[in-house]
Structure formats: structure tokens, C-alpha cells
Design brief:
By secondary structure, the protein is α+β, with helices and mostly antiparallel strands. It has two domains: about 150 residues, Beta Polymerase, domain 2, CATH 3.30.460; about 60 residues, Rossmann fold, CATH 3.40.50.720. It is about 50% helix and about 15% strand. It has nine helices and six strands. Strands 2-3-1-4 form a four-stranded antiparallel beta sheet, with helices on both faces. The protein has a two-stranded parallel sheet with strand order 5-6. Strand 5, helix 8 and strand 6 form a beta-alpha-beta unit. Helix 7 packs parallel to helix 8. The longest helix has 20 residues. It is globular and about 65 Å long. The termini are far apart.
Length: about 220
């Protein structure tokens, strides 16, 4: 039995590559099923705009890190655009350390990002729903959430700009004295786009236009 993780993030890949490896909720469900059937006794998939990481508890034969990476890439149909060099593999204690860093916000693009801990909670809940969590991963996740909360309550890491969207709007506010006289173009209607829009509205932006692949999602965000 061992803990194996692989991950792609802003440390290893450009935004277009990371975007190719983002898993929707339904894709995450399918990935958890496949990983359990083929490789792991227990598993977790954390996928956000800046990272996609897979954590798995192996039983019996050692899981090949490269084969796992190829499988995850193939799940997204990204072979050719994404390769093994975009991923970092970690085993045992190193994998635990990485998960703690992510939950604490110290591995985020904006140090202290407050979104990531809730995103890990959601990933954990989905794994539980899919019966992909056993005693080892359950204990690990309890410790991970505890570490994330302690870092936020016992340090000053969350002071200042604590998300990419918040930092972007704060910067806009410093460049332009009065945002009520400005217009913004928001590219993308995903989670980060939604948070950015909330911050823009909170700062009194004059008007916002949204560009997105699907009109329906853009209209939903506007509503």
C-alpha cells in the first residue's frame, strides 16, 4: 500500500495546457470510476483552473507513474497537446506534503488563495459520493482539512489579495481611479470568471461584457 500523486499546475504548464486538463464534475466522476477499476483502491481528483492533481492509494503491484499520467491525459483526449513533462509525480510523504501545501494556499498562484480549501472539500465530497474514499484517504483528508484551517487561523497568509480574481480587480482599481466610468471584458464564464465579475460589480464597474464558448453559460452568469 502506498500513496501516489501526479499533478499539473501553473508551476509546470501554461494556461492553455492547464485548461486542456481541467475536469468537469461529470468528467471527474468518470475519472474516479476508471481509476478505481484500473489502478487504485482509493482515489481523489482535484481539478481547478490552475491545477489538476490525482491522488491514489495503491494496493498490491506498484502503479507506474508514467502510465498513470498517460491515462489521465487520455481521459481528456489531450494526447499530443499535453505530455508527461507537464506533470510532477510524488510518492508517499512527498504526496502528503504536496496536498498539505495545496490546502494551505502556499502552492497557489496567489499565495493564501481562499478558494482552494473549499475546492478540496468539494473534491473530497465527490470522491466519497463515488465510494472512492477508504480508511487511508479519509484519514489523510481529515488531516489535510485540519492543516488548511490551522494555516488560515494561525498565520497571516490570507491577508491582502487572496485570489487571482480579487487581485486582478484590485489592480484595476489602482490603475483607474473611478471604475464606474470604465467597461470590462470578461473572457470566460467559469468559476474564476464568476468571482471576477462579483468583485467588479462590488467595485462599481460601469459595464461588463462576457465572452465565452457557450452563449448559455454566459447568459446564466449575467443573470
Amino acid at each position: 500500500m502506498n500513496l501516489l500523486s501526479i499533478g499539473i499546475s501553473h508551476h509546470t504548464a501554461s494556461v492553455d495546457i492547464r485548461e486542456r486538463m481541467w475536469f468537469t464534475e461529470e468528467e471527474t466522476r468518470a475519472a474516479l470510476r476508471s481509476l478505481q477499476e484500473r489502478l487504485f483502491a482509493e482515489c481523489l481528483v482535484v481539478s481547478t483552473c490552475n491545477r489538476t492533481e490525482v491522488y491514489g492509494i495503491t494496493l498490491g503491484a506498484q502503479v507506474d507513474e508514467g502510465a498513470l499520467t498517460d491515462l489521465v491525459i487520455d481521459m481528456k483526449g489531450a494526447r499530443g497537446a499535453v505530455n508527461r513533462d507537464h506533470f510532477v509525480g510524488r510518492l508517499s510523504g512527498a504526496a502528503v506534503h504536496q496536498l498539505f501545501k495545496v490546502a494551505s494556499g502556499v502552492d497557489s498562484m496567489i499565495i493564501g488563495d481562499v478558494q482552494i480549501l473549499n475546492q478540496i472539500k468539494e473534491a473530497f465530497a465527490l470522491s466519497q459520493e463515488m465510494n472512492a474514499v477508504g480508511p487511508v484517504l479519509h484519514r489523510l483528508m481529515q488531516s489535510t482539512l485540519h492543516v488548511g484551517k490551522r494555516v488560515r487561523t494561525e498565520t497571516s497568509i490570507v491577508e491582502g489579495a487572496v485570489s487571482v480574481s480579487y487581485a486582478a480587480v484590485e489592480l484595476a482599481g489602482k490603475i483607474f481611479a473611478d471604475l464606474s466610468k470604465k467597461s470590462a471584458l470578461l473572457v470566460g464564464a467559469g468559476e474564476t470568471g464568476e468571482l471576477t465579475l462579483k468583485h467588479l460589480v462590488g467595485r462599481g464597474i460601469g459595464s461588463v461584457r462576457i465572452a465565452n464558448r457557450t452563449r448559455e453559460k454566459a447568459e446564466s452568469l449575467v443573470a
